């Protein structure tokens, strides 16, 4: 569904405006805590997937 040039925020699935990149969105919209929790959850998911394979 997602086209190649559409980058959506992995946390809230908002699509940043064309003149604003995802990094700006993450910094301005999400708190450090939210970002940290997301990264931790992603890492745990990847780790679990690794173990089960
Ligand atoms: Zn977002």
List the helices and strands and how they pair.
Layout: H1 22-29, H2 32-52
Q: What count of structural domains? A: 1
Return residue spans where pLDDT drops below 50 for at least 5 consecutive residues: none
Strand content: under 5%
Small-molecule binders here are: zinc ion
Tell me, what's the shape? flat
Instruction: List how many beta strands DSSP finds.
Output: 0
Written as H for each helix and E for each strand, in order along the chain, the element string is HH
Can you offer a commentary on this structure?
- Helix content is about 55%, strand content about 0%.
- It is built from 2 helices and no strands.
- The protein has one domain (about 1-53).
- Zinc ion binds next to helix 1.
Core attributes:
binds zinc ion, mainly alpha, 0% strand, 53 residues
In short:
With 53 residues, this protein is mainly alpha-helical. It has helices at residues 22-29, 32-52. The longest helix is centred in the C-terminal third of the chain and has 21 residues, at 32-52.
């Amino acid at each position: 569904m997602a086209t190649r040039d559409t980058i959506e925020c992995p946390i809230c699935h908002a699509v940043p405006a064309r003149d604003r990149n995802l990094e700006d969105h993450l910094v301005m919209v999400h708190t450090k805590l939210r970002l940290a929790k997301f990264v931790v959850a992603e890492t745990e998911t990847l780790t679990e997937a690794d173990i089960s394979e």
